[in-house]
Write a structure and sequence with these properties.
Helix content is 4%, strand content 38%. The chain contains four helices and 33 strands. The strands form seven sheets. Strands 12, 13, 14, 15, 17, 19, 20 and 21 form an eight-stranded mixed beta sheet that branches. The chain is globular. The N and C termini lie far apart (57 Å). The relative contact order is 0.15.
């Protein structure tokens, strides 16, 4: 078919992440492919096995002298490496401990973590020469501002920073990723992502554990002819790759027993949204969202899944025949760019491996889960204020903004400018209107979980009826969110998680509590990076 194309330079073949010149189709037009790989190098669906990232082991353990809580000490090193993604070629990446995705961190609620992140990356990124400074964000954690991955709190190559995580929240799927100012998209796309699992007694009792608790980190990519990643953000609009990766493998296959499995699905594409469904037409059961377990499980046939959202689902393989293949499809959503094989994600092959029936979760789908979650117990009548926000694009500058404000405005103010100033413990309603025609926006609010009240005046989707920290705002949609601010005071970010939008420049900040002359938790100065000598 005939499509309009434009020339975009992506990388110069330099350093660890070489690239190539690439012709890029305009947005919202289906095309066969975009990668420049030779036919024998282009991966095809269902030719490789699903793998799991290793669990990161602590360097040491200890006790917090203040409250007596257990502490685990970990180290992650950001470094350049290569990954075996393609059939015959190696792909240079940036990875935590040299892996993509990075190792999974798994902890129990109440066990604190100190995560030392060492920046051992090259001095500059070869795509565009930007300095490879980083800022690590544990997405979903109620961290103090100086440990939250504040975009301008950067760690330079050769330096390190210790991040402290309280892990006091209920069980949930979190993830850690780079949040470096203005280059988050490139750094995340290059591989700086990993999952982080927080457990509690309720979740352990109700849901599958161990090998039946499966992390799925979904991303997409474009490849140059030599196997390196190619990058374009289409005038700051977004990147949509033609190769779907799950845990760093193209369209993998997982062998499953005839039992119930739990899948922690993270969309870590930097722009693409997904609409997953099973090829059998059978529904799945939603048990968890960004902020933890749902109050009640929800049966869903397909769902919109934007960048940075995490959904935990149960899939019942008991009904299928030995040897049967079930495909996790991608039905896509408006305002994506789709290719030949982006309509599928991965596959499951049913085996006759014996099932351990002594594990009660093998055939149990709980109806009730976290029925006393405080976020879901909030009532609109508790709100002290209603704030309205509009997300849109400036067609002259190609820059994105929230209520006309950008991160550059924050920088220019000496990091003082805020778009909202709720008090500690305040309950508020925030309303977001998407007036940028032709786009969807996954909005992320740091620090807190929220309850979705409505979408265009209607109830939220069934799978959204739990505590969230990212909300999908489709074209022409207005969503209302209810939230309580805490447990910390200080400055936190609000931004679009289509990462090219965030970088150009759809990010602002809010402040919880009054402005102090001296802020002991200043996100840039309170816990600076130190030389990693």
């Amino acid at each position: 078919m005939s499509i309009s194309r434009r020339q975009v330079l992506v990388g110069g073949g330099l350093g660890v992440l070489g690239g190539a010149a690439l012709l890029v189709p305009t947005r919202s037009i289906d095309a066969k492919s975009i990668s420049r790989l030779a036919p024998g190098d282009m991966p095809r669906p269902f030719q490789t096995a699903l793998t799991q990232a290793p669990i990161l082991q602590p360097d040491s353990t200890g006790i917090d002298p203040v409250d007596g809580a257990p502490v685990r000490y970990f180290t992650l090193t950001e470094m350049a490496a290569t990954a075996a993604i393609l059939p015959r070629l190696k792909t240079p990446i940036l990875g935590y401990n040299g892996m993509f995705p990075g190792p999974t961190i798994s902890l129990d609620q109440g066990t604190k973590a100190v995560l030392r992140v060492r920046n051992q990356l090259p001095a500059v990124h070869p795509f565009d020469g930007h300095p490879l400074t980083t800022s690590t964000h544990l997405h979903g954690s109620a961290s103090l501002p100086q440990y939250d991955g504040y975009a301008s709190d950067i760690t330079s190559p050769g330096f390190r920073k210790d991040y402290r995580y309280p892990n006091a929240q209920p069980a949930r799927t979190l993830w850690y990723h780079d949040h470096g100012v203005h280059y988050t998209a490139l750094n995340v796309y290059s591989g700086l992502v990993g999952q982080y699992h927080l457990h509690d007694p309720l979740e352990r009792a109700l849901l599958p554990q161990g090998r039946y608790d499966v992390a799925l980190s979904i991303s997409d990519a474009i490849f140059a002819a030599n196997g390196t990643l190619s990058y374009t953000d289409d005038s700051h609009s977004g990147l949509w790759g033609d190769v779907i990766l799950v845990n760093g493998r193209p369209w993998p296959v997982m062998k499953v027993q005839k039992r119930i499995y739990r899948f922690r699905i993270l969309n870590c594409c930097i722009s693409r949204s997904l609409r997953p469904s099973l090829s059998t037409g059978d529904p799945v059961t939603f048990v968890g969202v960004d902020g933890g377990l749902l109050p009640l499980s929800q049966t869903v046939g397909s769902w919109r899944h934007s960048s940075a959202e995490r959904y935990e689902i149960l899939v019942d393989f008991r009904k299928y025949s030995t040897g049967q293949r079930i495909v996790l499809r991608n039905l896509s959503n408006p305002n994506n760019v789709d290719y030949d094989y982006t309509n599928r994600i991965m596959a499951f092959d049913v085996t006759d491996e014996p099932v351990d029936v002594s594990d009660p979760t093998w055939n149990t789908i709980p109806a009730q889960l976290a029925t006393n979650n405080p976020v879901m117990a909030l009532s609109p009548s508790e709100a002290r204020k209603v704030r309205k926000f509009r997300v849109k694009r400036d067609d002259v500058t190609n820059m994105w903004n929230i209520n006309g404000e950008t991160w550059q405005d924050v920088i220019s103010s000496g990091y003082k400018r805020v778009i909202a100033d709720p008090g500690l413990g305040d309950v508020e309603i925030w309303e977001f209107e998407n007036s940028s025609g032709g786009w969807f926006h996954p909005l992320h609010i740091h620090l807190i979980d929220f309850k979705i009240l409505s979408r265009n005046g209607r109830p939220p989707f069934a799978y959204e009826k739990g505590p969230k920290d990212v909300v999908y705002i489709g074209e022409g949609e207005t969503v209302r969110l209810l939230m309580k601010f805490g447990p910390h005071k200080g400055r936190y970010m609000l931004h679009c998680h289509n990462l090219p939008h965030e970088d150009h420049d759809m990010m602002v900040q809010f402040r919880v509590g009054p402005e102090d002359n001296f802020d002991p938790n200043d996100p840039i100065t309170a816990a600076p990076a130190t030389w990693d000598g």
